[in-house]
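Please decode residue identities from the backbone states below.
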């Protein structure tokens, strides 16, 4: 599930780790900041969906953009 984040202006994608070919030993679900190539793994879908909503909590570059006011909002299709 791909979403554009209004706060950071980045694209954040939620993957089932194994199906996406990612390291499923780190967590069944992966949330990826596509703009900054940062991946965070989670054991449950619910937790992954919660952190997907605010990448500035786990992607340092998103946090820096929000703090610095360097956010470029854009419209993103919900389809991957």
């Amino acid at each position: 599930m791909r979403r554009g984040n209004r706060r950071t202006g980045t694209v954040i994608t939620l993957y089932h780790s194994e199906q996406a070919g990612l390291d499923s030993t780190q967590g069944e679900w992966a949330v990826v900041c596509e703009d900054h190539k940062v991946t965070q793994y989670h054991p449950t879908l619910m937790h992954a969906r919660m952190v997907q909503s605010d990448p500035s909590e786990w992607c340092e570059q998103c946090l820096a953009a929000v703090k610095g006011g360097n956010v470029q909002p854009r419209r993103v299709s919900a389809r991957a």
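Observation: Residues 60-68 form the longest helix (9 residues).
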